[in-house]
Amino acid sequence: MIINKDAFSNGQVASKIWLCEQLELLFDNIDTIWIYGGWYGMTAFLLKSRGNVDISTIRSYDVDPTCEAIADMINENWLYQEWQFKAHTADCSSLLPKLNNPDLIINTSTEHFDTMEWWDNIPKGAHVVLQGNNMPHDDHVIHTTSLDDFCKLYPLDTILYKGKLDFNYPDWSFTRFMQIGKK
């Protein structure tokens, strides 16, 4: 099993902790969360480990089949507790949340999705957390340059939170954008 160490980088972890902190200010409990582009399940691990929001079920979806076993391993504690967590290999554009009605959909990797079909399939009124960034990268197909640009691409009817987090390193920098609300 080969693990991409970038999943545990400062930018990845700090962005997910920021997400947790903001969700904790907005919600006491969430029954079901779906995570799109869940990669190794770090968002789920941090949400469940922090324990500040009572979450019954998290389902993590990623198109990369190598992610499922790693995410399940990282979140094994909750996998064995009545499947509170489970990773799945799936194209998020084919998921139909309106049929399954998750309470919250999280996508922290919007820049990696090559179509807007995943966004279009999320029903109006659904709670979402969205993150993206302005980092130039070969794997990034959606490019936003500012928080306003990001929010225009993913318009919400109700915004509960929006903000940006700057990452400055000795030889490069980027900004992560996030909004939480109802589509």
Explain what this protein looks like in three dimensions.
With 183 residues, this protein is of the alpha/beta class. The protein has a single domain, classed as Rossmann fold (3-Layer(aba) Sandwich). Helix content is 30%, strand content 30%. The protein contains seven helices and seven strands. A seven-stranded mixed β-sheet has the order 3-2-1-4-5-7-6, sandwiched between helices. The longest helix is centred in the first third of the chain and has 17 residues, at 10-26. It is globular and about 40 Å long. The N and C termini lie far apart (37 Å). The mean pLDDT is 94.
Entry summary:
This protein is α/β, with parallel strands linked by helices and 183 residues long. It is built from 7 helices and 7 strands, in the order αβαβααβαβαβαββ.
SSE order and pairing:
Blueprint: H1 10-26, E1 29-36, H2 42-50, E2 54-62, H3 65-74, H4 76-79, E3 85-89, H5 97-100, E4 104-107, H6 117-120, E5 127-133, H7 147-153, E6 158-168, E7 173-182
Helix pairs in contact: 1-2
How much β-strand is present in the residues? Answer: 25-35%
The helix content, as a percent range, equals 25-40%
Compute the number of helices.
Answer: 7
Number of strands: 7
The gross shape turns out to be globular
The overall pLDDT average reads: 94
Strand order of the largest sheet: 3-2-1-4-5-7-6
Question: Stretches where pLDDT falls below 50 for ≥5 residues?
Answer: none
CATH level-1 class: Alpha Beta
Number of domains: 1
Tell me the CATH topology.
Answer: Rossmann fold
How widely separated are the two ends?
37 Å
Structural class: alpha/beta
Largest sheet: 7 strands, mixed
